[in-house]
């Protein structure tokens, strides 16, 4: 067992890992991420204390599923891509998507997080980890710049200061010949109401960057391809697998635009 001690934004990745592990224990899971459950069983940590149980655990996999689907679509189109997975935490996305050997995959998070990843997850060819803050931009030199890039950032943007997030996007767009960005954003109200989110409250993390309209990224050279607000993350097939309580919550959120648009997933090209 690996004993861990993480605080603030680094602790939040243990909550999302636990959400995926709980999903994988269901008879009819949405992501079915067995690697997440194996990881949870090997880490000595009081996972439920971050408040991500029951309905909130479903929200984690509901967000991850369309991100996985969009990422898989891109890699079919561009099997020569590099993947830059920012704020990867303990997400086993590389094992879920299992890209072909022509794809070079980079997982980036703080050094302590990457150190834990290296202990828990197996190595694989064409897979690399970089231990750095995403906003200490020297890490960019470790990633080849002559290939199309798929940039994925799940549960990261809101933790960045707006000016740092903007600079990160500008540098990524400038670095690669072309690519796609897939990430989620909170709107400014979501940032204001951050303390109603138990994971944020219990981890002691602070959220900074709110994005009301995904077209705001156009100023960094990113063209919006599609975006889904929280009520649209579940496809009918996924909806059918949710508990009645979660289904009801999602249906109700459709009629509450303020809640519905608090968290959004987007896909942009450059
Ligand atoms: C909510 S977790 C999400 C983790 C993972 N993407 C997932 O979905 O399970 C937020 C992650 O962002 C990372 N993070 C936040 N700010 C960061 C920064 N400036 N540089 C690198 N990683 C950062 C945290 O360490 C944490 O792993």
Runs in which pLDDT lies below 50 for 5 or more consecutive residues are: none
Question: What is the CATH architecture term?
Answer: 3-Layer(aba) Sandwich
Please tell me what the overall shape is: globular
Strand fraction:
15-25%
CATH homologous superfamily heading: Vaccinia Virus protein VP39
**Count of DSSP-assigned helices:** 11
Structural class: alpha/beta
Main sheet specs: 7 strands, mixed
Find the CATH topology.
Rossmann fold
Lateral arrangement of strands in the main beta sheet = 5-4-3-6-7-9-8
Total number of domains = 1
Note the quaternary state here.
single chain
Ligand roster: S-adenosylmethionine
InterPro entries: Ppm1/Ppm2/Tcmp (IPR007213), SAM-dependent_MTases_sf (IPR029063), TcmP-like (IPR016874)
GO biological process, one term: methylation
Pfam families: LCM (PF04072)
Protein name: Class I SAM-dependent methyltransferase
Write up what this structure looks like.
There is one protein chain. The chain is globular. The longest helix has 24 residues, at 54-77. The strands form two sheets. A seven-stranded mixed β-sheet has the order 5-4-3-6-7-9-8. A two-stranded parallel ribbon has the order 1-2. It is 40% helix and 17% strand. It has a single domain, classed as Rossmann fold (3-Layer(aba) Sandwich). Strand 6, helix 6 (162-175) and strand 7 form a beta-alpha-beta unit. Helix 1 packs across helix 2 (34-42) and helix 1 (8-24) packs across helix 3 (54-77). The model has no long low-confidence stretch (mean pLDDT 93). It has eleven helices and nine strands. It has helices at 8-24, 34-42, 54-77, 93-97, 111-120, 162-175, 188-192, 198-203, 236-240, 244-253, 257-260, and strands at 2-3, 43-44, 82-86, 104-109, 127-131, 149-153, 179-186, 223-229, 263-269. With 270 residues, the chain is α/β, with parallel strands linked by helices. Residues 9-10, 12-13, 16-17, 87-89, 91, 109-110, 113, 133-135, 154-156, 159 line the site of S-adenosylmethionine.
């Amino acid at each position: 067992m690996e004993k861990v001690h993480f605080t603030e934004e680094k602790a939040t990745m243990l909550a999302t890992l636990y959400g995926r592990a709980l999903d994988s224990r269901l008879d009819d899971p949405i992501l079915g991420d067995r690697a997440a459950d194996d990881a949870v069983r090997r880490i000595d940590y009081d996972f439920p204390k971050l408040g991500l149980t029951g309905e909130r655990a479903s929200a984690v996999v509901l967000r991850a599923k369309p991100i996985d689907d969009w990422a898989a679509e891109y890699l079919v189109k561009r099997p020569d891509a590099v993947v830059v997975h920012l704020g990867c935490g303990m997400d086993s996305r590389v094992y879920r998507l299992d890209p072909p050997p022509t794809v070079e995959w980079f997982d980036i998070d703080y050094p302590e997080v990457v150190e834990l990843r290296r202990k828990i997850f197996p190595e694989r060819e064409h897979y690399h980890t970089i231990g750095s803050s995403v906003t200490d931009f020297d890490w960019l030199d470790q990633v080849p710049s002559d290939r199309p890039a798929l940039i994925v950032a799940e549960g990261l943007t809101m933790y960045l200061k707006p000016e740092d997030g903007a600079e990160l996007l500008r540098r990524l767009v400038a670095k690669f010949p072309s690519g796609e960005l897939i990430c989620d954003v909170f709107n400014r109200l979501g940032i204001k109401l951050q303390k109603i989110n138990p994971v944020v409250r219990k981890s002691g993390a602070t959220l900074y960057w709110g994005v009301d309209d995904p077209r705001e990224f156009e100023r960094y050279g990113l063209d919006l391809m599609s975006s889904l607000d929280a009520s649209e993350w579940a496809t009918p097939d996924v909806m059918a697998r949710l508990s009645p309580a979660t289904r009801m919550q999602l249906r109700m959120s459709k009629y509450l635009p303020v809640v519905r648009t608090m968290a959004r997933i987007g896909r942009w090209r450059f």
